[in-house]
Amino acid sequence: MSTIDGAAQVEANGTTFHVEVTGHGTPVLLVPGAGGDARQYVELARILGQNHTVITYDRRNNGRSSQRPDWAETSVDQQAGDLVALVETLAAEPAVLFGNSTGALIALGAALNAPGRFAGVVLHEPALLGVLSNPDDAMATVQPVIAAGVETGGLAGGAEAFVQFAAGDAAPLLPPDFLDSLRTNARVLLEAEFGAFASWRPEPEALSGMGVPLAVLSAEQTAPFFVEAAEWIASSAGVDRRTVAGGHMGFLDHPTELAKEIDAMF
């Protein structure tokens, strides 16, 4: 059980995080992907909060967490360390982690580094580009989208274009305050995080012996490279990859289905 209830600023791993805790029951911690802002999970958190203590947070230098203008470098390992430190600071009992896209990489990294802290991990559309047979295909899909956004709206336009593209048909459900924060903090996504996260990959041997229950989910409406990445993780870990409704950010328009996948971990 978390030591806080509601919203708080929490010191952990050398920085200050915006954390929100809602609901009651077995704990679930939601790890945000692009934009690093928990407001993308508002509907999923509401549904999960009916049966669980739901912990959400804004990642390092994102959203409502503390901002350092000179911050220009990060890694999946650093962000996974943030996640482990937050769990320790909050004194949360072993929680199930849910992460989407790059948030799935952070959740996976945390579970590999500190398996005893977590009761399970649900990876939805993991953006593990480092294992793809042809990663250039993935970059060729998103780079023109970002470039067009930058041309018309600078870094803010590029970040928003990327996230709107990732959300697909669910893009109208992106919360306005999330998008405002994304535009303001576009440099972090495009300059500090994008390349660092794209190059990360875990060792297959670590996945096969991680010792934490793992679910790997692909969306019905997604790009082939996300399916390939999810299949690589699932195969390495010795679990089945499952397909769920929606697109890459299906937690926006299919939160009930994803909540059921999280419930299945308990």
Largest sheet: 8 strands, mixed
Task: Report the CATH architecture.
Answer: 3-Layer(aba) Sandwich
Query: Main sheet: which strands, in order across?
Result: 1-2-4-3-5-6-7-8
Structural class: alpha/beta
Q: Cα-atom Rg, whole angstroms? A: 17 Å
Beta strands, count: 8
SSE run: EEEHEHEHEHHHHEHEH
What's the end-to-end separation, in Å? 15 Å
CATH overall fold name: Rossmann fold
- Strand % is 15-25%
CATH domain class name: Alpha Beta
Explain the overall architecture.
- This protein has 266 residues and is an alpha/beta fold.
- The protein has one domain: 3-Layer(aba) Sandwich (Rossmann fold).
- It is built from 9 helices and 8 strands.
- It has helices spanning 42-48, 76-90, 102-113, 135-167, 176-184, 186-198, 204-208, 224-237, 255-263, and strands at residues 6-12, 15-22, 26-31, 52-57, 95-100, 118-124, 214-221, 241-247.
- It has an 8-stranded mixed beta sheet with strand order 1-2-4-3-5-6-7-8.
- Strand 3, helix 1 (42-48) and strand 4 (52-57) form a beta-alpha-beta unit.
- Helix 2 (76-90) packs across helix 3 and helix 4 packs across helix 5.
- The protein is globular and about 45 Å long.
- The two termini are 15 Å apart.
